[in-house]
Design a protein that fits this description.
This protein is α+β, with helices and mostly antiparallel strands. It contains 13 helices and 19 strands.
Length: about 450
């Protein structure tokens, strides 16, 4: 099967490592690749949208699973799909939307694979209603370290270790998913401005139950009385009756807009406190104080950055750190303190979002717990960034919170057990299932997973 030695990095473009990139095209080739992993092991990889080092394996093998990308069966009446793990959410949307179905959970990009969505147990704007991706998986086929393909279903230890397990229990080959019915490919969206963090949290607490999807862009450069000011965007799939008459003849058309790609070379220092501060000011001021029922394209509501291929290049060659944490309900003071610290430090982040999580999912390393989650992008070359984020990690852990492993690139291993109480169970199952350490990644080595 095709293989090459390449430098591999995450979407944040930090800490690249060299590995053999193997491209299995059949299930049999995947089995062979796992059995021939070598002393440094292997890790499955999808479309490379994990921000950190979860899909890297220095000196070992990385299995590019995107060649296994077939949709095998769609149950149009019952609302389910059986597909290969290398199928992207974009491909699923192209196939499912004309039939009146949508993926149950999508992150901020549709360019992730089904296998990656399960391995990271992704969440979206609807976690408070629908939970994580794994909640909608009926079953999956998992290639384990001994070369066996096992059918794995929810309610088992192996499923709970695999959902959010970052590819370390095996290679997901196929999955059967339950789907979300939709009548159109438009969204009915309400937008409003919040004057500060307390105003934002009050609005979310009081009215989030009315919406299937909810997210707030937050200005982390605003200080003083404006600290945590935000633009809150919430909505649901638009019913057919909400469409103008001219659009009702083709309500399920899916044609995402696409802009030119970001250039391969971007000058260093483009995203400074001054430029990001200007962007944030303009973004906040141009948002409506309150607007109800605006019709937006599905792609614009869920995946605005997908319209700019390779948008991660705007951070320059140094790349960026994506930092996401969650703290539980009742820990709002921790959230206020962290937002205040980020604002005072003037971290130049223009991609910062706040959401509320609902009930936790059963995955042992799944990220969400009921509470508040903040995600932000920061240029990796910001002076003193590592030490600053270490301090935030300690504050999050002390509050019973955690960081998101699919976005992490620098967490210290000593905090991991405090953040993930089922960590010992995960390690024990891994030791039993994979005693030779066939599945390993840079993330796993760094955090001793």
């Amino acid at each position: 099967m095709p293989a090459e030695t390449v430098s591999v990095t995450g979407w944040g473009r930090t800490a690249p490592t060299t590995a053999r990139l193997i491209h299995p095209r059949t299930y049999e080739e995947a089995v062979t690749a796992v059995r021939d992993s070598g002393a440094r092991g292997s890790i499955p990889r999808g479309l490379g949208r994990a921000y950190g080092d979860a899909a890297q394996n220095a000196g070992g093998a990385v299995l590019d699973m995107t060649g296994l990308d077939q949709i095998h069966a769609i149950d149009v009446a019952g609302g389910s799909v059986l597909c290969d793990a290398g199928v992207s959410l974009h491909h699923l949307m192209e196939a499912l939307l004309p039939l009146g179905w949508f993926v149950p959970v999508t992150p901020g990009t549709r360019y992730v694979t089904v296998g990656g969505a399960i391995g990271a147990d992704i969440h979206g704007k609807n976690h408070h209603v629908s939970g994580c991706f794994s909640r909608h998986v009926v079953s999956l086929e998992l290639l384990t370290a001994d070369g066996t393909v096992r059918t794995v279903r929810p309610g088992t230890d192996l499923f709970d270790a695999t959902a959010g397990g970052m590819g370390l229990t095996g290679v997901i080959l196929t999955a059967t998913l339950r789907l979300q019915p939709v009548a159109t490919t438009l969204m009915s969206v309400d937008t409003e401005r919040a004057t500060d963090l307390d105003d934002l949290m009050a609005r979310l607490t009081a009215t989030d139950h009315r919406y299937r999807y909810s997210v707030a862009w937050i200005d982390l450069l605003a200080r003083g009385t404006a600290t945590g000011r935000a633009v809150l965007t919430r909505g649901d799939h638009a019913p057919l009756a909400a469409l103008p008459a001219r659009a009702r003849s083709a309500p399920l058309t899916f044609r995402p807009a696409r802009l030119p790609a970001a250039p391969a070379y971007v000058p260093e220092g483009l995203l400074t406190r001054r430029t990001v501060g200007l962007f944030n000011e303009l973004w906040y001021r141009r948002a409506p104080r309150a607007r109800r029922g605006e019709l937006q394209r599905l792609s614009a509501f869920f995946h605005p950055l997908d319209g700019v291929p390779h948008w991660n290049r705007v951070y320059g060659r140094g790349g960026f750190v994506q930092y996401q944490f969650v703290v539980g309900h009742g820990r709002e003071e921790t959230l206020r303190r962290i937002v205040g610290r980020i604002a005072r430090r003037r971290c130049p982040s223009f991609l910062a979002v706040l959401k509320r999580f609902g009930d936790a999912d059963p995955g042992w390393l799944s990220f969400p717990v009921p509470g508040w989650t903040l995600a932000l992008d920061i240029p990796a070359n910001l002076p003193g960034l590592g030490a600053f984020l270490d301090e935030l990690d300690a504050e999050v852990a002390a509050a019973g919170g955690r960081v998101y492993l699919a976005k992490d690139s620098r967490l210290r291993p000593d905090l991991l057990a405090a953040m993930y109480p089922r960590l010992d169970d995960f390690r024990a199952l891994r030791a039993e299932l994979d005693p030779r350490g066939v599945f390993v990644s840079d993330l796993a080595r760094r955090l001793t997973l």
